Fold this protein.
Amino acid sequence: MKIIKSFFLLSLTIILLVSCEATHRFKIAAKEKATLAEEFGINVSEKNNKPIEKAIFFVNGKEIPSTNLQASIKTNDYGVGKHLISAMVYYGENKSKRVNSSFEVLAKNPPEVYDYKIINSYPHDESAYTQGLEYYNGFLYETTGKNGQSSLRKVELKSGKVLQKVNLDERYFGEGMTIFNGKIYFLTWKSNKGFVYSLDTFELEKEFNYKKSKEGWGLTHNQSELIKSDGTHKIWFLDPETGKEKRSVQVYTNKRSVGDLNELEVVNGKLYANKWQQNVIVIIDPKTGVVEGIADLTSLKNQVEKTQNLDPDDDVLNGIAYDVSTNRLFVTGKNWNTLFEIELIKK
């Protein structure tokens, strides 16, 4: 009987302790949505006004300055997108608890809307499932996708003739590419692997792996880093020596995130991206992730469809190349028979 009674008292004590612990309910008060360049305060409190000794605040895992259970958020420090707030709350006798919340930063202004005009058109291999496109020293370089059909190509602009070609192993689904420091970097879709080729010989020189980004989609560079899309609303910046992700930005308008970002090109310091299956080019500030412009090229696809049958879901706009020396912008699509030189014009 004494054993049963002792067990009962012990169980009751545990229940009371757990109940006391559960009565401490902490909350971070923060603005749910803000615009870039805005500043706002955050604080932590206990639901029943029980005392808190101190709190340490973190944004995206990094500690920020705070006083008297309060802190200030400067959105310019974090850019657009969703960001995690957490607080380590200390109370009672050496007790602590972590509390989480978040805030979302939107662009301040809506994106500019662009129209286009066609300057020139050139033949394009309609069997090329275009994944990456780049103009370099008078030639187009192109990568194509699908298992067993993925390739790297050097193409003559005016004729569309393939001058040089190497195929990927059929295990790999080829994606975007870029030329950096005399090397060609070529992504794969779901293998988390990229390949580096000699620009002159197309000989494979090495491989690299990327692990933080979801998949391999588009690829370009900013003279010092590789810039990669992964099919989400994130843009990743990679070390060109190792291929490892160094950082990322989230891509947002003044209303929402913009996902399905695909083929990439840097044009006059801005990042141009195809949005998968939307036949548009999104113009992004690579420093902040803000969408500054949108160009709808749906009518360009409609023009191609007059001369060939396209799969409406698959044979979409995908391919952006820029000639820095003459300020020419080239676009094409998956399995399109035409490559266009266009000029974007603000509406």
